[in-house]
Amino acid sequence: MRYISTRGQSPSVGFTDAVLAGLAPDGGLYVPDTWPAFSRETIAGFAGRPYAEVAAEVIGAFAGDEIAPEDMRRMCEEAYATFNHKAVVPLVQIGPDVFLAELFHGPSLAFKDVAMQILARLYDHLLGAQNRTQTIVCATSGDTGGAAVEAFRGRKNVKIVALFPEGRISEVQRRFMTTAEEDNVACVAVKGTFDDCQAIVKQTFQDQALRQAVDLSGVNSINFARIAAQAVYYFTTAVALGAPHRPASFCVPSGNFGDAFAGYVAMRMGLPVARIVAATNANDILSRAFETGRYARGAVQATISPAMDIQSASNFERLYFEGVRRDPVETARAFQAFGEAGALDIPPQAFATMRELFRGVAIGEDETVRTIVSTLNETGELIDPHTAVGVAALRHVDDLRGPVVVLSTAHAAKFPEDVAKASGVTPALPRGVANLADRRERYEHLPAEAETIKAYVRAFAES
Ligand SMILES: *Cc1c(COP(=O)(O)O)cnc(C)c1O
Predict the structure, then answer these.
(1) Range of the domain at 328
(2) Model's pTM, two decimal places?
(3) Residue 174 pLDDT exceeds 80
(4) How far apart, in whole angstroms, are the C-alpha atoms of residue 238 and residue 402?
(5) In total, how many domains does the chain have?
(6) What is the dihedral of CA 104, 368, 422, 221, to 10 degrees?
(7) Lining residues, ligand 1, CB within 6 Å
């Protein structure tokens, strides 16, 4: 399997290089040159199998012959053994034919663990084989950093720098990053927004001199291996609810569009998916795009679902590329224009294709709070604000078919203040992380200046 850039100016690469590079050198995103597909029989056969086995098949389809099936299987087993629920991603029913897929049973209590735990093992495996060390730079709107630090701390062949917007993430989110004791981990509070952090990471990667001096890598949701790992739970949940005979719909609390795009990938691999709803908070670039055909940045607003406070949804470029029938010249033009002007119009043909599958809904703060309360009253489930955005969005879409799966992306205890304020109930941290508040923190404060942060990354990588 080969990986090509959405902007068409970089040579195609294999799975290993696509994973270790993250972003393509031309600024585009890697996608497989063709979508691997499963037969209906294969998909039906996923029913009742352990999560790690299905993961090995789905992710293995993207690795092709670059990873031996038994290695993939072992890595998936190890990765999902870190979860504290035997089903890994259990389903909980909250209404007639409406289910929560609980993606938060991993070490940092957010869905990002699902991809990051396997990604860290892939890195170890692929870098170890090449006797190589890389420095990962990642921007986090809250949960990526914690999941990445949990997955990569102490790994031999990787150093990791996590950048987060100062004061815009919860204390629990911050502590998952800043309390790691291993010295291959560095955390930086940036005076700016998540979009500033993400722009700095992009600039860091575009600095060829720095890239040569330090072997840089990215594990943000632009990394294709994360998308592949996220496609897995679309299969396991849909199959548990009757796919491939009965198509399922998904409602996905969305920011950078990695999670919802993974649903598109599962569909391209043969899973019957009726509808994917991209549910956003007030930072509604995605929901507006799917409703109006115009993908246009707004000002970032701080909300109680901070992991989605994003006004530039990186993975949207991948869907655009598919929408314009994989025309890299058009994709490069559109996203260069977006980079400069902050807006692009989706061509009518591409928009029509997107609307076959996607809907967008934006949910305000009041409705998010009311949804936490009503879900608790009606079902006894205490959900976090991100999940609440997804649950609330259901009411605004009238053409959902089949069972509906809302992706529950974080544990309520990751946002204890806001959940307690909304519901009057303080969610308890699961056993194993209960002492988080007592651990010692360690992090730097830096301004949102690319040059300053690049210098810091370089010094850390060379230390
Ligand atoms: C990252 C995150 C999201 C958004 O996922 P994307 O793949 O960026 O769209 C939603 N909820 C939580 C809790 C997250 O951590």
Answers:
(1) 1-122+223-427
(2) 0.94
(3) yes
(4) 10
(5) 1
(6) 30
(7) 110-112, 143, 221, 253-260, 307-308, 386, 409-410
